[in-house]
Amino acid sequence: MRAALRAALVVPCLVLGSAMSLCTVLLHDYWWGLGLGIAATAATLVALPAGWGTRLPFATGWAVALLLVTPERPEGDYLVSGDPSGYLLLGAGIAVFGAGFTGLMPRRGAAEDSGGAGPAT
C-alpha cells in the first residue's frame, strides 16, 4: 500500500515541478517574480519528503521544463533572457536538480557510529 502511494505521487510531483518552473521562467524578468519563484521552489523542496517518488520527480520536472524553454523560439527570441536574472534562473535550475538528489541515500545515524575508543575524559 505504501509503495503504491509513493508511486502515485510521482506524476503529480513531476507536473508540479514543471508548472512551478514555467511560472518562474515567465516572471523571472521582474525582480519580485524571480525571487518569488526561487523562494516557492525552495519551500517546496524543503516541504517534500526526500525520496525517489517525491523530491526527485519535482526537481526533475522543474529542470526539464527549464531546459525545454531555454532554446531559441521560432520568432527568434528567447524566454530566458541573457542578463543576470536569466543566468541566476539557469543557476537555480542546476541547484534545484541537485537538491532533488539530497536525501536519496539514508543518513548515517549515531547508531552506526562506533564512537571511538570510549567515553571522553
Give me the secondary-structure topology:
Blueprint: H1 2-8, H2 10-27, H3 31-47, H4 55-69, H5 84-99
Helix pairs in contact: 2-3, 2-4, 3-5, 4-5
How would you explain this protein's 3D organization?
- The chain has 121 residues and is an all-alpha fold.
- It has a domain at 8-68 and 82-99.
- The chain contains 5 helices and no strands.
- The protein has helices spanning 2-8, 10-27, 31-47, 55-69, 84-99.
- Helix 2 (10-27) packs antiparallel against helix 3, helix 2 (10-27) crosses helix 4 (55-69) and helix 3 runs parallel beside helix 5 (84-99).
- The longest helix is centred in the first third of the chain and has 18 residues, at 10-27.
- It starts with a helix and ends in a 22-residue tail after the last helix.
- The model has no long low-confidence stretch (mean pLDDT 86).
